Amino acid sequence: MESRADALVGREIELQVLSTYLTSPDRRALILRGETGVGKSTLLDHASELATTTGHRVIRAVGAEAESKLPFAGLHQLLYPLLPDAEQLDGAHRAVLEAAFSGGDGTPPSTMTLGIAVLDLLSLATTSKPLLLVVDDGHWLDIASAEVCGFVGRRLAGSAVRLLLGMRSGVPSAFDAAALPEAPVPPLSRQAAEQVLDGRYPDLDPQLRERVLAEALGVPLALVELPPLLGSAYPGHGLDGGSRSGGGSFRHRFQHVYGTRIAALTPDVRAELLRGALDGVGAGAGSGPTRAVGYRMLDAEEAATCGLLDVDPVSGDFVFRHPLVRSTVVQLATPNERQAAHAVLAHVHRHDVERHATHLAAATVDPDEQVAATLEAASASARRRGGSAAAVAWLTRAAELSESREDRSRRLGDAAFVAGQAGLLDQAQHLVHVGISPGTDSPAAVLASAYVALYGDGEVRSTHRQLVGAVESLRDGTTGGPPETLARVVNTLLVISQYASNRDMWEETDRVLTSLGDLVPANSRLHHDAWSDVVRRGAGLAERVDRAFVDTPPFEPWDVALLCGAAHRVDTLGQYRSQLRRALDRERAGGTRASGIAMLHLNHLDQVASGDWAAAEESGERSLELATARGLTLFSYQSRAYLAVLAAMRGRLERARELQAQVDSWARPRGIGLLTQLADTAGTIAALSEGDYEAAYLHAIGITRPGSFEPYQHQASQTLLDLVEAALHTGRTQQARDHALAAQAAGLPYISPRLALLTYGVLSMTAEDEQEAAEMYARAEAHPTSATFPFELARIQLARGIRLRQLHGRRASRQLLSRAAASFELLGATAWTERALAELCAIDLPARASALPVTSLTWQERRIADLAASGLTNKEIGERTHLSPRTVSSHLYRVFPKLGVSSRAALRDALEKLPDRTSA
């Protein structure tokens, strides 16, 4: 293997990068990335020595393939020397570290909570001197450790801690998404490669020298190891002339070099090396001291003599000289030898449930219920510590070793459920469709199958039937499971029913839940009332949501999403904005999955309601991007639906209708009523925005009939203002009044603050008596939370201003119309701003002294106005412009107030007074 001097030859740039890194106040994390044998480890050694000379404390960890499935194994290496300092942490952070490293009965730590605890521990550790954390072979770190290290690495600015990692090029790892700065470690230049080769082999045959230089391609390890492999000029390296091998990668050639040396060892030493390799003994000096547990190789001097092992200078333990030595030892062993080694290691780790299970599983070939139960216990331990990926792997292996078909199916179902909950949809789908035997599905398997079918392809009909059957099986005792299983199945059934938004499905769900009686958890009852029919079940719901937030923290991510969803249904989500965003930050830090996307949707809805539309656009686009990338098709179309509604509100009508069409064409054949109703909502608002009130009315009654609020229709109450406004503008005054009175009779003002604002607003708009209209408007505007719904309030102000103008003239209406126009402009609702400004123009255009710009006619409006002024009917104008008569009427409705006229007869004179140009 190359010496320190060999590896530092030609590394002037890399050495300068490391020197700057260790002294710069800005850069706190750095990844050195390069191919096998390029000298990353030696550069890490150099950085460690340099940091020590400049007063740093250095802690090193080494990733090992054998430990890549053990949750937090890598993080434990890094923090083990610091754990005594954990006693000084506050109770919450100390508990988080204990949960990660030893498990417990509490909530598994998230990446964010554990990362914050680690940052506090590192802060304590640097009170006396700065700290350098060095991780070699970072690509082999377990996923949970890599996620926490990435979280910590992004937040070291201003601290006395630095994180330096060595990573192999071309090997995927959890650090790929960490967004940490990187420095490449390329192969050596030709001149540097010659210097290394000539320093190690000064008398090398010229022809062989050229061949080594050509094949090594500047990789230091190849420069050192290839000469004895390619020629017989150097006996004593374990190869003769017959070992020449023309092709093969560097890894294969190095493994041939090491394999020849390993084969020459005695059986006992080979067995000792195999146990060390399978247990993840470190490779390279400095890898030993941070290992709190692990196998220690003994009586292996023979392997050290032939260059396979080194002795760690601190611990005195044997370590592998290079990771390729370790992997070669494993590859050369026979299956029986590996099983025997794992059996020994299982006994060594008999008091560590996860390590014991890992080795026991590898040592076992035939089904063994005791081993399967041990693996199941290890999976539970991993889940408590936040290691979902390891939990899935152990449950899958436990299923393979199960003695009965029922236990196998149950464990595969549990594995699929854990994968589905963690957002590992591909794994869940594989386990559901390939591994679980028909007819023996456990509730967990049914849940996992439902996750895959619902979120993967929007399947609500079959998943509803499956979940109903699972609830009935749990009720009747046909299947068993832990206490939380019933709550999970019930909540998933409610989610499916919400998406279906179908009366028959909801009535079946109601029947099943009624049959359960007191077995239904309180929060599940809350979710049911919020999501099924808020008009009929919403009284007192806001108070129940508030109690649930107070009484049952902390929450799992899905719990937060479900409760915030209930809060959204009663329009109190803004009260829990901080809880939602904290949970969302935690999900983002851990790699946003299904629950995180659900929370992004809720965050988007909160931003829309509060008027932060630019941020809402970003949240909606982000949720669409994540859902698409993760194959969560249902969520991707839900994101499109929300973006369609927002685009319609902002007056971006082409975008709104494009998204509306995409959502409707995908969701309607699948019977996903929630999304088709959102598509109709987008169509309603888009039509209202451009003044096409007939189209708006038709879209709105597709959601609910005038004068009623269809049971189990998700958007029935939400479309109250839209339907009434569309009805009024199309001359359907009685239908508008009936709908307003129905809202009052249904008690909507007592369900949510937004529904109170809308109910009083539409009662004002439809009242024949002006005293009632004024009183209802006053109630709407004076409602304590009216300002938290700026779009709805501005629309009610606009409607009231128009009515006042018609009844009392310009003085009475100007203030309201100006306020509405200013609110719309601040929101970015361009079409609504234009309408409010047109109403202001109709009051007194010359006298108006407002900072808001006067809006001229669009090209289309001017064209239609000219045709109308020439005496053509709406039908004749439509034939010439390829528009419907209804659309022509809508355009003229906007043109008249802009020009300050009230009839076609006055159009010609008004148009002649306009300048020749029109707005685009």
Query: How is the largest sheet built, in terms of strand order?
Result: 2-3-4-1-5
The third-level CATH topology of one domain is: Rossmann fold
Structural class: mainly alpha
Q: Work out the number of β strands.
A: 7
Q: How many DSSP helices?
A: 46
Strand content: under 5%
Largest sheet: 5 strands, parallel
* Helix percentage: 55-70%
CATH classification, class level of one domain: Alpha Beta
- pLDDT below 50 for ≥5 consecutive residues: which ranges? 232-248, 286-292, 845-855
The CATH homologous superfamily of one domain is named P-loop containing nucleotide triphosphate hydrolases
What is the radius of gyration computed over CA atoms, rounded to a whole number of angstroms?
Answer: 35 Å
| CATH architecture verdict of one domain | 3-Layer(aba) Sandwich
Shape type: elongated
| Average pLDDT level | 83
Span from first to last CA?
A: 73 Å
How does this structure look, described?
This protein is mainly alpha-helical. A hairpin with a 6-residue loop joins β6 and β7. α25 (about 520-530) packs antiparallel against α27 and α34 runs antiparallel to α35 (about 695-700). It is elongated.
SSE layout and pairings?
Layout: H1 4-8, H2 12-23, E1 29-34, H3 40-53, E2 57-62, H4 73-79, H5 91-102, H6 111-125, E3 131-136, H7 143-153, E4 161-168, E5 182-184, H8 190-200, H9 206-216, H10 220-230, H11 250-263, H12 267-278, H13 301-305, E6 309-311, E7 318-320, H14 323-332, H15 335-348, H16 353-363, H17 369-384, H18 388-400, H19 405-421, H20 425-435, H21 443-457, H22 461-476, H23 484-500, H24 503-516, H25 522-532, H26 534-537, H27 541-551, H28 557-569, H29 577-589, H30 594-610, H31 613-629, H32 633-649, H33 653-670, H34 673-689, H35 693-701, H36 720-729, H37 733-745, H38 753-766, H39 770-782, H40 790-808, H41 810-827, H42 830-844, H43 859-869, H44 874-881, H45 885-899, H46 907-912
Parallel strand pairs: 1-4, 1-5, 2-3, 3-4
Antiparallel strand pairs: 6-7
